[in-house]
Amino acid sequence: MKYLEEFRNPDLARRLLDDIHATVTRPWALMEVCGGQTHTIIRHGIDQLLPDQVELIHGPGCPVCVTPLETIDKALEIASRPDVIFCSFGDMLRVPGTDRDLFRVRSEGGDVRVVYSPLDALKIARENPGKEVVFFGIGFETTAPPNAMTVHQAHRLGIRNFSLLVSHVRVPPAIEAIMRSGDCRVQGFLAAGHVCSVMGVDEYPELAARHRVPIVVTGFEPLDILEGVRRAVQQLERGEHRVDNAYARAVRPRGNPAAQAMIADIFEVTDRSWRGIGTIPDSGWRLSARYRDYDAEHRFAVTGITTEEPAACRSGDVLQGLIKPHECPAFGTDCTPRTPLGATMVSSEGACAAYYLYRRLGTPTAPLEATPVV
Ligand code: SF4
After folding, report:
1. In terms of pTM, does the model score above 0.85?
2. Which domains does the chain carry?
3. Ligand 1 contact via 341 beta carbon (within 6 Å)
């Protein structure tokens, strides 16, 4: 496929790898922020092709994974109501709440539907005026614009039986929290290219300067990852800590102003709880006061639901890069994609799911079925 195969070219990958090997003189630890990048790295065995001195630490950028358990429980409570049609992207249906998941709610008679766009949920609301239609609006800066657009449309068209269960999170405060953590080993970041295609890069120079870490905006194909690593390692070896855009084919410095304006109109910044990590100040969005009527938490009075994370699941440590997934005692035994204890095992961007899918079952250096790019 054009514009895809070019970024999986083995000869070019080898050249980038040779350059990285020639540049590295000492150990460096880089965090890839996005779960999509983690899957590319594990699927293609990129971490195993890098010099031993370069460690890739998997970051918290999987939207399903960081949605806190209590938000899942709120979704389950709302979806169980007989007057509700609950709409979600498919990967949320298998995420375990305290005692069930959305599939279970559906099997028990709940009207839970998989949609491919929040606007599909709005269409369902127009077609079912006697029902309350709720869309599960989770994710990072990438999914915030379409979710904001849907609320904007509902307001413009006077559709009152639509609401949004919101759990939006933002990358820069997460980077701040990771760097402030006492256990942090991260020396540089591969920032999520799709997030920057929306928000631009203006939020990152101050972070890079204050924490003295290079932040390289990076894409999602194997060559994107290798180029991001190459640029980050070059900066580290030179003692630099700048923001560098290695995904210029998709990211403009100022991002997408129209999308940012839509977000600013519908949402306001708020503290957010991250699964297994806890509350990070200013790390999310909620509906602004003008649109609070579209907030499903208030409409269905579930704001009081609070839930403790299960002790057996160490997804918080995985999401902060403190352990690799196979270092969790439950990995592959009590916790598998069929019997998940945490969202990181079922999300399509979850690190635990990647390690299970690509057979990183034991030692970090011995994948059974990884497919190297070269
Ligand atoms: S392997 Fe399962 S229990 Fe362990 S951190 Fe991952 S999702 Fe949680």
Report:
1. yes
2. 68-170+255-299 (3.40.50.11740)
3. yes
